[in-house]
Amino acid sequence: MKILGLVTSHRHLGNTEILVKEALMGAEEEGAEVEILRLTDHEIQACRGNATCLFTEKVCIVHDDFNYLMDKMNEKDGIIMGSPVYILEATAVVKQF
């Protein structure tokens, strides 16, 4: 089993990252292969809304790290996402993604 941990906090080694790492360590103890990524280390631009990805077989025309991150997610059997909560909402990078 392969598990991907996604950290969506801008604080490196902050509480969110610590909790995601703890969850991944538990999965690793059970025999899972784990990997961790910080969404804030990747460029994710806003969707331009031209829908070429929906109506043609072309990939998104926005040249950012979204397709790389989606490929990483599709390779895994499970995903653990950690996000701090500000004013009852997840961080902006989660919404952008």
Give the key terms.
5 strands; 97 residues; 4 helices; alpha/beta; globular; 3-stranded parallel beta sheet; two-stranded antiparallel sheet
Describe the secondary-structure layout.
Layout: E1 2-7, H1 15-29, E2 33-38, H2 52-55, H3 66-75, E3 78-82, E4 85-86, E5 89-90, H4 92-96
Parallel strand pairs: 1-2, 1-3
Antiparallel strand pairs: 4-5
Question: What class do helices, strands and sheet pairing give?
Answer: alpha/beta
Largest sheet descriptor: 3 strands, parallel
Order of secondary-structure elements: EHEHHEEEH
Which segments are poorly predicted (pLDDT under 50) over 5 or more consecutive residues? none
How much of the polypeptide forms β-strand, as a percent range?
15-25%
Task: Walk me through what this model shows.
It is built from four helices and five strands; from the N terminus they run βαβααβββα. The protein has helices spanning 15-29, 52-55, 66-75, 92-96; strands at residues 2-7, 33-38, 78-82, 85-86, 89-90. The strands form two sheets. It has a three-stranded parallel beta sheet with strand order 2-1-3, with helices on both faces. Strands 4-5 form a two-stranded antiparallel sheet. The mean pLDDT is 90.
